[in-house]
Amino acid sequence: MITSGGLLLGKVVLITGASSGIGAAAAAVFAREGASVVLAARREDRLAALTAELTGKGFDAAYVVADVTRADDMREAVAFTVDRHGRLDGAFNNAGIGGDQTPLHEMQDDIYDSVIDTNVRGLWNCMRAEIAAMLASGGGAVVNNSSVGGLVAIPTAAPYVAAKHAVVGFTRAAADEYARQGIRVNCVAPGSTRSEITADWYGRNPGLEEAIHAITPQGRTAAPEEIAEAATWLLSDRASYVTGVVMPVDGGFVNR
């Protein structure tokens, strides 16, 4: 059913990696579109400040401190959401890290381990808990945050590219598995977007942002709200016949 008013009116949505960047932008956009939002991340000070900002504007927001690499944390985050609202309608699995930009043969094991643990095992932990809750209440929608690195190669970022391809794989597999049980699973693939990851990469690689702009048809870096808007639509009933999709939100980068 297509709702009147906001795209997410009346929905309960859990957001991981919600303390900054795309996750923080998503919290604001989802709330504006009518959702009750639960913010999850590791940094309580940022979560508390953002939650206070949203509730001060009259939105329904709460937070839970959680590390996606810990399965118990994600089970508890989902349980907190269900205890508070009675169900989980949507999840935006946004938490992720970039790691170093280093040639593959020079990449250290600790970088590989941290990137895969957060971006792949973290998603695994989130989806297991979220899907179980959605099955219990009759369905829902999941949006995972991959990257253009999940669709094409990015030089000197092999673990990140591998991890973001895995996000695409998890999305497609879960979409197929749960379609007839009322759960849709889709994925956004952002291009260059203002976030802590890109700020770190650009800060350590002078000229990289300009080089990416040069091969991006729109010629700019996205605002995090632009990624959140795409996730909003995928979570909404307007996308009721959309599942298993990987949506580039990249200014035309992968289509160049």
UniProtKB/TrEMBL annotation:
<keyword id="KW-0520">NAD</keyword>
<protein>
    <submittedName>
        <fullName>Glucose 1-dehydrogenase</fullName>
        <ecNumber>1.1.1.47</ecNumber>
    </submittedName>
</protein>
<dbReference type="InterPro" id="IPR020904">
    <property type="entry name" value="Sc_DH/Rdtase_CS"/>
</dbReference>
<dbReference type="InterPro" id="IPR002347">
    <property type="entry name" value="SDR_fam"/>
</dbReference>
<dbReference type="GO" id="GO:0047936">
    <property type="term" value="F:glucose 1-dehydrogenase [NAD(P)+] activity"/>
</dbReference>
<comment type="similarity">
    <text>Belongs to the short-chain dehydrogenases/reductases (SDR) family.</text>
</comment>
<feature type="domain" description="Ketoreductase">
    <location>
        <begin position="11"/>
        <end position="204"/>
    </location>
</feature>
<dbReference type="InterPro" id="IPR036291">
    <property type="entry name" value="NAD(P)-bd_dom_sf"/>
</dbReference>
<keyword id="KW-0560">Oxidoreductase</keyword>
<dbReference type="Pfam" id="PF13561">
    <property type="entry name" value="adh_short_C2"/>
</dbReference>
<dbReference type="InterPro" id="IPR057326">
    <property type="entry name" value="KR_dom"/>
</dbReference>
